[in-house]
Design goal:
Blueprint lengths: L4 H7 L7 E3 L2 E2 L10 H12 L7 H4 E3 L6 E3 L8 H18 L5 H21 L3 H15 L3 E4 L1 E2 L19 E6 L2 E12 L6 E4 L14 E6 L5 E5 L20 E12 L3 E4 L2 H40 L8 H26 L2 E2 L5 E2 L2 H26 L2 H4 L12 H7 L8 H15 L2 H12 L4 H11 L2 H11 L31 H5 L1
Parallel strand pairs: 1-11, 5-9
Antiparallel strand pairs: 1-2, 3-4, 6-8, 7-8, 8-12, 9-10, 10-13, 11-12, 14-15
Length: 510
Amino acid sequence: MLMDAAGYRESLRAYQPRVFVGGQRVESVADEKLLLPGINGIGVTYDLAHDEAYRPIMTAVQGSSGKTVNRMLHIDASSSDLLGKLEAVRLVCKISGCAQRYLTHDAFNGILQATIRADANHGTDYTQRFLAYMHRIQDEDLTCGVAMTDAKGDRSLRPGMQANRDSYVHIKERRPDGIVIRGTKAIVTGAPYLHEFLVMPCRTHAKGDEDFALCCAVPCDAEGITIVARPAGRPGDPAAKFSAKYGQSTGAVMFDDVFVPWDRVFMAGETEEAGYLTTSYATHHRHSCIAARAGFGDLLIGAGALIVEANGLDADRHSHVREQLVELITITESFFACGVAASVYCSKDASGVAMPDAVFANIGKLLLATKIYDMHRIAHYVSGGLIVALPAPDEDHNPETAASLAAVLTGRPDIPYEQRAEVARFIEDLTVSKEAGWYSVISLHGGGSPEAMKREIWRNYPLMEKVALVESLLDRGVLADGSRVSKQPGRCCVTGCEVPERVTTQEAAE
């Protein structure tokens, strides 16, 4: 069953989560105005699946069931699937700013890979449990949130060494019928208006961390869960030309002795496989983030072209604005191209999941994480100072000032002041407002910090191939004085430094 946006919103009424926004208890998530922009954003993923023009992109056939499911819930089995996911996420984000629901997709793919590996190594039955759960979510067309980022406590200490164990979600008790979990996940996208939480590890683990190597599924209203969230977007703000309609809430989710039956537990103490889940999910998620920010770039490109026109300039004749718009286009399409390359050069492991190329996925995410600030700068440049100097929307209806403002703040005579003001406020909303700052931060840190991406690029890049290439041109390491340097495997022939070899997903599985 594929729900539409109205059905999704109505489905939230079947749950009674304990949610606080702005210090107040939310009685009905579906009716809370402070959360409506976030509900609208996820609703886009539902409605587009019913649109004849977009159905081929927004739906896919699940290989393990043969059923048609929403693309946001699908397991990728090929390069075509990965490309389809990229297009779907970009499509949703050029409408809503952030798809939010693609985290379910990324988690499903990572969990399936990790459970198959855990079963092979430990004789568990996690995969059977997970597939049964996943098929139910797909059949009911639900939305899951990824509860991954722990509060972390003292970041110099591993989870098992923390003075306050609750800074990481962990297994408190193992029972014959399930486990009891405690702790806090600090950043959960869309937390108030989800159906289920996928509790996942946020880092690699070592001996002593077994209770923290955890993956399970919990309904949003399970006893013992409290969600403390921020409003989604800027609901009710007349100046918020975008984020009054579409936005995203994030929340801290506290698990206070929450019981989870075994059929919802997909990992419980397997430290090595839990670490693999963290990194595999990160690759899937960074690949999706590329498409998400490309959709955001589409919004800035369109708004930039409109404001240039409203200001009375012509990009064909005025090279300074043309160059800026070309730079914005280049930034957006360059990191999206990394997503395409990651899809084309994908690999498969024993799970059959198509894994985006880790180097291209991480380069694309690193580019967007740092270039988001340049994207804002370019939008500011082409728009002029009007985006921060424009009077508040209330003045548009003030009989004592409206006519005078309209007369002097009109650019081209054939473009009304109202149109110019609207696009200026649209750019302000996306690049200057508090919501804009929030978009910048999630672009920088969402899916991991830039440092995490740099580590993955270094770990996966085929540096030894480049070293071997140059060695062959230098006669296998002959130095200028004629002496020859012996080379140990994995070390540079001249410096002796360790250099990483590229490890594919298939090789890692073997």
